[in-house]
Amino acid sequence: MADANKLFKIEIITPERIFYTGDASMIEFTTTEGDIGVYKHHIPLTAVISPGIVKITETSGVKKAAVHSGFAEILGDKVTLLAEVAEWPEEIDKNRAKEAKVRAERRLKMKEAGLDVKRAEIALKKALVRIDVAK
Fold first, then answer.
1. What is the Cα–Cα distance from 88 to 125, expressed in whole angstroms?
2. Would strands 45-49 and 34-38 be described as parallel, antiparallel, or unpaired?
3. CB-facing half-sphere around the CA of 121: CA atoms within 13 A
4. Rounded CA gap, 8 and 1, in Å?
5. What is the DSSP string of 93-127?
6. In whole angstroms, what is the distance from residue 34 CA to residue 37 CA?
7. Which spans in 52-93 are helix H?
8. What is the pLDDT of residues 5-51, one digit of tens each?
9. Whole-prediction pTM value?
10. Dihedral angle over CA of 66, 71, 79, 21, nearest 10
């Protein structure tokens, strides 16, 4: 459980909505450089978000969400994620995510001419993140 003096503000914003706003003692997410965990009074930092699971540690427990690409601004008392997409587990269509995984794997396996490999790899990563969060 989080101690009140260790809490800081977190906002996760997508183009469609303010996905999350609240106080937490820690947030963990994936950047292009790897996973990062942030506590209050972290050094100021800007990072590029990669598809991954965001874990928000609140006083009541840990919330998980799927976040796909964007930017993170970390200040001493606030973290803001500007995300392309953010989804709670109950918002994820598991069957659609599994179908997307199969499609991406098939594209990568077939290696057709003109295939955008990076795009197919990102699609696979997004599908895997959604499947993991929706469990």
1. 17
2. unpaired
3. 4
4. 14
5. -HHHHHHHHHHHHHHHHH--TT--HHHHHHHHHHH
6. 10
7. none
8. 899 999 999 999 999 999 999 999 999 999 999 999 999 999 999 99
9. 0.85
10. -50
Residue of 129, 135, 25, 9 whose CA lies nearest to 81:
9
Alpha carbon distance 66, 94 (integer Å): 13
65 burial level (CB within 10 Å; 0-12, 13-18, 19+): buried
Residues facing 87 on adjacent strands: 66
CA distance 21 to 107: 38
The per-residue DSSP string of 42-53 comes to PPPEEEEE-SEE
123's tokens = 């699609």
